[in-house]
């Protein structure tokens, strides 16, 4: 994994982060890692927007894909 160094953090900000880490039973490093990973995840609204774009393109294509659940049921019945 890569390392990140952050310099010149305000003392009050650092204290708040330490308090937050303690309240979550984590070290400061673990808390900061959790915050960075959380904020690096895709935005749910952007993801929904992308899904909607794909759905619109799919509907506009006129393609009709069979229901795989129905196909599996038919295969089991044979």
What does this structure look like?
The protein has about 80 residues and is an all-alpha fold. The chain has a domain at about 10-60. Helices cover about 70% and strands about 0% of the residues. The chain has four helices and no strands. It has helices spanning about 10-25, 30-40, 45-60, 70-75. α1 (about 10-25) packs across α2. The longest helix has 18 residues, at about 45-60. The mean pLDDT is about 90.
Observed structural traits:
69% helix, elongated, 78 residues, 0% strand, mainly alpha, single chain
Number of helices: 4
Proportion of residues in extended strands: under 5%
Overall 3D shape: elongated
The unreliable regions are: none
| Helix-strand category | mainly alpha
Biggest sheet features: none
Mean pLDDT across every amino acid position: 91
Distance between the amino and carboxyl termini:
52 Å
- Percent helix: 55-70%
Total beta-strand segments? 0
Write down the secondary-structure element order.
Answer: HHHH
Radius of gyration: 24 Å
Ordered list of secondary-structure elements with their pairings:
Elements: H1 11-23, H2 28-40, H3 44-61, H4 68-77
């Amino acid at each position: 994994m890569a390392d990140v160094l952050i310099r010149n953090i305000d003392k009050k900000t650092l204290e708040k982060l330490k308090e937050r880490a303690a309240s979550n039973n984590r070290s400061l490093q673990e808390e900061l890692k959790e915050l960075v990973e959380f904020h690096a995840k895709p935005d749910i609204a952007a993801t929904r927007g992308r899904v909607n774009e794909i759905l619109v393109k799919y509907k506009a294509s006129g393609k009709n894909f069979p229901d795989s659940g129905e196909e599996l049921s038919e295969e089991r019945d044979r």
